[in-house]
Amino acid sequence: LSPTGPKETKTTCPYCGVGCGVIATVSDNGAVTIKGDPEHPANLGRLCSKGSALAATIDLDGRVLFPQIAGQKSGWDEALDLVAQTFSAVIAEHGPDAVAFYVSGQLLTEDYYVANKLMKGFIGSANIDTNSRLCMSSSVAGHRRAFGSDTVPGSYEDIELADLVVLTGSNLAWCHPVIYQRLAATKAARPQMKVVVIDPRRTMTCDIADLHLAIRPDGDIALFMGLLAHLAASNSIDHAYVSAHTAGYEEALQAAAQLALPDIATRTGLSESELVTFYRLFETTRKVVTCYSQGVNQSSSGTDKVNAILNCHLATGRIGRPGMGPFSLTGQPNAMGGREVGGLANMLAAHMAIESVEDRDRVQRFWRSPMIAARPGLKAVDMFRAVADGRIKALWIMATNPVVSMPDADAVEAAIKTCPFVVVSDVLQDTDTTRHAHVLLPSLGWGEKDGTVTNSERRISRQRGFLDRPGEAKADWWQMAEVARRMRYSGFDYHNPSEIFAEHAALSAFENEGRRDFDIGTCRNIDERTYQALRPFQWPASLTEDYKEDSKRFFAKGDFYHPDRKARFVAIKAPAVTDHTCSAYPLTLNTGRVRDHWHTMTRTGKSDRLSAHIAEPFAEIHPSDAAALGIQDAALVELASPHGKVILRALITPRQARGNIFVPMHWNDQFASQARIDALVPPVTDPVSGQPASKNVPVAASGL
Ligand code: SF4
Fold first, then answer.
1. Residues in domain 4Fe-4S Mo/W bis-MGD-type (predicted)?
2. What is the DSSP annotation of 334-386?
3. For residue 279, which of 290, 346, 499, 695 sits 20 to 30 Å off, Cα-Cα?
4. Domains of the chain with CATH codes
5. What's the DSSP call for residue 117?
6. Ligand 1 pocket check for 411: Cβ under 6 Å
């Protein structure tokens, strides 16, 4: 072969929800270099440490390269036949709700679409849930309650156009680094712009904050209820917008007004003067964006927190206008794409509602499917409970590692161990979850697979393969389509992801006529060549038209997706003041991400550079707590909850609030023994969204 010169491929970073464009260059000798794509609107050439280290994570060490049954190499036909026969037999004997898929925000939209179609439209159960449940399902529920649709109203550029950016439950600097870079650059150029960070910890994001509110865990509802009451009292309500485009304002205000300032101070742990400073800033600044992330979502009251924030933006009409709006920052690269195909147990497809008879009928007719799931399925925590108690007898896990990432992780591992039939599709041979697979299927990894992802601002981008497919690895959509065909279902004759994307686009437009927000119908006849060349676009932009200003935002003129086209305020009841701690478990554990690792480190753990930033798991403790417990800096410390124990190194720092402990979520048994922090997190969930509460866990700490 003669050298052909370096080959460039435009693709998308596989990590966080910012969705940065990446240019991967493969040289003649196979070496890969990575740089940011200057033409991608999300990052304009920027990358963070994780994105720029992607080349160090794509080797084949540890890869699963061929299908395996009971740990022994098998052929694809044998493995797929076994999966199809076992799922069919379980469904025949116990009904469709005896099987389940647990999928992932790492899947591409095309994979997600096939998984959702197979489970909801052909197996006839809605038992498909995703690790996105742990990430942003409270945002989905809050959007749907307020807007009648799961719509993110704004764009990243609003964060740069705002005069006040409120970051609540978001360590933007480490968790969405390129958005942080954009914000920091804007603030440097326009120092009068104000940044408020609401977080129990003084995180790195606070380095650009004008005001840091070290709020008590779960104090957010009281904070934003108080803000709504303050906005009303200071004549800051946009009554024209409220009366034309919303319903329920009076009830929401009445509920919010129940809390007096001293009560809010108690519930938030903030001083009255801090509260008033924040409220005055919000009141007097027209262009406000409130960004929120897992600190809001991962709570037993996460959906109410989201609606408390949305209430304040609706009341002031600060939504869908340049530099104004609430902004949910999703954690994963394709959490949004998963939402678009309905890959959650309580959603249908293309933002249609599983509770709606008309929507179910519409989707079933479109799919020409024999049945359609008639009710919501089991959400993640309940799904693994059902595995534990034997109701789920066949489980297919794709592209995720629940033995590390689920709350009550030891119980989840025990449940998977006892499940009669477990299929795992993954890129790695040996993870805490693949160890328990009866059938292990080799999937394509980043750089090998093809499809689309949607980032936090509704921008659909291509992930493109530029590496040879290793061993016998196959795309996840192909694996599911093959199993569907073997289960004798029609409608799965896909040859490439472009056909799946075209079908997904067609479904989004099917009998839509403006009833639903998600409509990418202009892509429904997309051919392979156009799909390969697809440039990032932000729905509802048209694929074929030039960029339209209208595509950037929703709701400036109302037109919400409830039947009366009005938004709903939610009258939020202040939760009882509860202190979950007790004498046995006197500290509050908060879990989260570090800058240079991703999820359970199966990829970022391969990079020496990324691992050098923080080499081992740690527990961040306030100096007073450490002194009271006799814990020395860098000494080993045991953390315990009623659900499990971990051993970590103490990091004593005044950045941590007194009484709180922070531990990163990433480390697993592969990288550090006894460091799976989610083993300590109880399976407590938000009653509306089903999202687990990973930020407010009572624990005990002791030095070793
Ligand atoms: Fe990747 Fe997120 Fe970093 Fe962008 S900000 S390079 S999407 S990890």
1. 6-62
2. THHHHHHHT-STT--STT--TT-HHHHHHHHHHHT-S----S----HHHHHHH
3. 695
4. 7-57 (3.30.200.210), 68-133+334-497 (3.40.50.740), 137-329 (3.40.228.10), 587-703 (2.40.40.20)
5. I
6. no
Residue-wise pLDDT for 464-499, tens only, equals 999 999 999 999 999 999 999 999 999 999 999 999
Residue with tokens 């306030």: 622
Report which protein residue has its CA nearest ligand 1's atom 2: 16
pTM, full prediction: 0.95
Whole-angstrom distance, CA of residue 246 vs CA of residue 248? 7
Give the β-pairing of 660-664 and 587-592. parallel
**Ligand 1 pocket check for 18: Cβ under 6 Å:** yes
Q: What percent of the chain has pLDDT over 70?
A: 97
Does the beta carbon of 19 lie inside 6 Å of ligand 1? yes
Which neighbouring-strand residues pair with 646? 639
Q: What is the pLDDT of residues 631-642, one digit of tens each?
A: 999 999 999 999
Which residue's CA lies nearest to atom 6 of ligand 1?
51
Residue nearest to atom 4 of ligand 1 (CA): 20
Which value does ipTM take for this structure?
Answer: 1.00
Q: How far apart, in whole angstroms, are the C-alpha atoms of residue 405 and residue 407? A: 7
How far is the CA of 425 from the CAs of 88, 104, 109, 304, 471, in angstroms? 19, 11, 16, 35, 15
Q: What confidence tier does 440 reach under pLDDT thresholds 50, 70, 90?
A: very high
DSSP code for 468: P
